[in-house]
Amino acid sequence: MSANDAGKSQPTLPVTAKTLLPPPQIQSSSSSESSIELTWTAVTNAVEYSMSLLKYNAAASEKITQNTTGTSVTFTGLDPGALYYVEGHGWDAENRMGEKSAASNQTTRPPAPSSVAITMVTTNNQLSLNVSWTMAPDVYGEVSYTVTSDQGPTCSSVSLRSCELMSVSCGEVHNVTVIAQNDAGPSVPSASFSFTTVPCPPQNLAVSETSQGFCDFTWDMVSHADGYRAFVKTADGVEESCNTTGTSCDFTCECGYTYLMTVFAHNAAGLSQQGPVLNYTTLPCCPTLMNVSLVSTDTLEIEWVAGRGAELYETRANDSSGVILCNDTSPVCVLSYLDCDTSYSVKVIPCNDLSGCNHNCPALTKDTAACMPTDLALNKVDPSTVTVCWTSTNRNATFLVTAKGDTDVLNCSGTTCCDLTNLPCGSSYEVSVTATSDAGDSLPSYTESFETAPCCPTTLSVAQVTQAMTNVSWPAAKGAHTFLTTLNSTKGHARCHTEDTHCVMGCITCGTNYTVTMEAYSLSGLKSDCSYQGFSSSLCCPSGVRIYRVDLNKLRVSWRSTPGASHATEVSMTGYSSNYNCRGSPGENYCDITTVICGDEYTVLVVPVKADGSTEDFCPQKMYAVTCAGSSVGADGAWRLERANMFSLYSAKASGGRGKEANSFQRKAKRGVAALDQQFTPSRPCLHMKIRK
Fold first, then answer.
1. CB neighbours of 73 closer than 8 A, spacing ≥ 6?
2. Which residues touch 240 (CB under 8 Å, ≥6 apart)?
3. Level-2 CATH architecture, domain 543-691
4. Which of 40, 121, 614, 685 is packed most tightly, with the most Cβ within 10 A?
5. Would the pLDDT of 324 be above 70?
6. Following CA atoms 153, 157, 163, 164 in sequence, which dihedral angle do they give, to the nearest 10 degrees?
7. Domain 461-536 has CATH 2.60.40.10
């Protein structure tokens, strides 16, 4: 558009111009010997792509092109191990070709090696495999090779078409494959080639004298061996040989001679390396004057006189289940950890380093001691009797049970069970069982422990602390660790569980007969039930105590007794200057007190009277103040009875008359005596109470 002082003109019509598409950024790879994969990032405004391959040294007419609307393409059917030029470009919507990509190369993977061959190589007694192969001659560029055996060894080479698998062993089957690799990656493995190495030398060479003057030379079978060749050289230098597919050769032998023997195994790969050489001398003589004795429950001692030519003795003890043996150069041997209650056939076999052992010597039979009883079980029959049972595999034995306590030892005997009787309470015992046979005593069985129930305390006393609380005490008891004491009645029960020899119980109901029982427990939880003389709780205190005036000079104290109570009730009224008492007969619920002096504070106690005439100690007290209502006591026949309280300020009220008494009450008020106002009128003998806060 244009502009002047008057303003801007209208814009011109738009014109569209397009540039060529940029080249795609191609990434190439080869996943097989006959394919190449191309990928690229999408080009803006491109609707199609053309990708081309041209083999190195090929004519331009052999170019291979593929069109695609995607961002990847795969070329197949290519030559293995060949170099290809890679290029590509995009097309826009108007079918204009974009710029070509930068030139790049991609090689296909090489083909698998072929014609694999393997030969056995031995260098300084070390075995190796020489592996060779062929490769197609038109493979482009440098190719490396890796040879792998399923037994583990590997080798590699560059350009050369052979390498050695080192450190292989005899008697192995190797499945060998060869892989070629170039810049594109590895080829597929070659066809597996199976090769068996030479067999290992036979092991465990042995000679046995099958009969007088004849020996049998044997060895272990060897894997992958087709046959064996054995050589036997006598002391005078004569050598014999034996070819066989078995594992033994027979030859003549006489005592006193030394033989050198060896054997080789062979197969298609060749002869095994030389194995061990056996130096053999004929068998020594049997020992004489052999003696076998039992020195402990599972140990036999064997002694003998040495035989000619023996350097070592092998002593064997055979039973039906196996063999126990020991080797020693001395003419004595101890065989331990033998089976108990077992008959052993004991044989001493003379040996030497060269010839081995003479197994044709006679044997002696000896029994071991009885077996230790097992599965010891204790069953408590009653507090003073325990049955002990056990399990035994002995053929013929007697049994003794031993129970060891702190101060005594108890015994009993039987075949599988017996009873320990008259056991004291509160005692602990360690119990074991011993078996005895003609050959000897067993070890004691593993110990089982038991304890008898704890003893009950000899006495128990119950003392009442308050009307609802008692103190129960008792002496210590042997074996008792904790005590569960119970007071039972038809109205409820109280219980305490303690380690002490005393406890305090609450929730006691007054006027109730209790049975007293105790459970004494040991540390392991054994219990003894103990019973004692019953206990009667204190009589119930009267309730609902009331005080009111009956006439001018008489006060009446009333209460409520427990239903069915058959005891008298006593009232005491204690003041600073005078005391009063009255008693209600059984069934009565009040009594009267006369000539009470006013102007004093009284402590009133209402208690039941026990059968022996004494009174209970646990009833609550109440405090009342008797004041004079007129100018003088009885001037108008009016009293005031006030109940004291520790938390209310009491003020004596006197209308004229006795200022001394008023001053006395004021002093008491200052001491913090609280008051409940109880006001009576001459015409109404009822208690009117007002709490003053």
1. 37, 38, 49, 51, 66
2. 231, 232, 233, 234, 251
3. Sandwich (2.60)
4. 40
5. yes
6. -30
7. yes
582 SS3 class? strand
Query: Residue 670 in 3-state DSSP?
Result: helix
Phi, psi of 331 (to 5 degrees): -80, 45
Q: Model confidence over 532-567: pLDDT tens digits?
A: 998 888 888 998 899 988 887 788 999 998 887 888
Percent of the chain with pLDDT over 70: 89
Q: Which amino acid is at 113?
A: P
Q: What is the 3-state secondary structure (H, E, C) of 162-188?
A: EEEEEEECCCCEEEEEEEEEECCEECC
Q: Could you read off the pLDDT of 396-442 as tens digits, one per residue? A: 899 999 999 988 899 999 999 999 999 999 999 999 999 999 888 99
Cross-strand bridge partners of residue 216: 208, 250
The rounded distance, in Å, linking the Cα atoms of 673 and 682 is: 27
Task: Name the residue with tokens 């007088």.
Answer: 212
pLDDT at 641: 60
Among residues 253, 209, 248, 218, the alpha carbon closest in space to that of 351 is found at 209
Residues 6 or more apart whose Cβ sits within 8 Å of residue 310:
284, 285, 287, 350, 351, 352
Residues 6+ apart with CB under 8 A from 346: 290, 292, 300, 302, 315, 316, 317, 318, 335, 363, 364, 365, 366
Backbone angles phi, psi at 531, to 5 degrees: -125, 145
Task: Report d(CA 113, CA 163) in Å as an integer.
Answer: 13
Q: CB–CB of 499/485 below 8 Å?
A: no
Cβ-based burial of 654 (10 A; exposed 0-12, middle 13-18, buried ≥19)? buried
Which residues pair with residue 615 across a beta bridge?
Answer: 609
Residue 4 is inside which H or E element, if any?
strand 3-4
CA distance 197 to 377: 65
Decide if pLDDT at 679 tops 70: no
Of these ranges, 227-241, 316-330, 424-438, the one predicted with the greatest mean pLDDT is: 424-438
Residue bearing tokens 């569209």: 16
Instruction: Round to whole Å and give the CA distance between 66 and 175.
Output: 42
CATH 2.60.40.10 fits 26-107, yes or no: yes
pLDDT at 17: 65
In the numeric block, the tokens 């974009």 are attached to: 98
Distance CA 450, CA 26 (A): 91
Give bridge partners of residue 530 from the DSSP assignment: 518
Computed on alpha carbons and rounded to an integer, the radius of gyration of the chain in Å comes to 60
Question: pLDDT higher for 657 or 181?
Answer: 181
Cβ–Cβ < 8 Å for 201, 277:
no
Query: Domain ranges in the chain?
Result: 26-107, 114-196, 206-281, 288-367, 374-449, 461-536, 543-691
pLDDT tens digits, residue range 494-533? 999 999 999 999 888 888 899 999 999 998 888 999 999 9
Give CATH for domain 288-367: 2.60.40.10
Nearest to 508 by CA among 537, 468, 553: 468
Residue 666 contacts residue 642 (beta carbons within 8 Å):
no
User: Cα(399)–Cα(433) distance, rounded to whole angstroms?
Assistant: 7
Hey, what amino acid is at 643?
R
Q: Which residue has the higher pLDDT, 60 or 388?
A: 388
With beta carbons less than 8 A apart as the criterion, state whether 346 and 365 touch. Answer: yes
Question: How far, in Å, CA of 384 to CA of 531, rounded?
Answer: 19
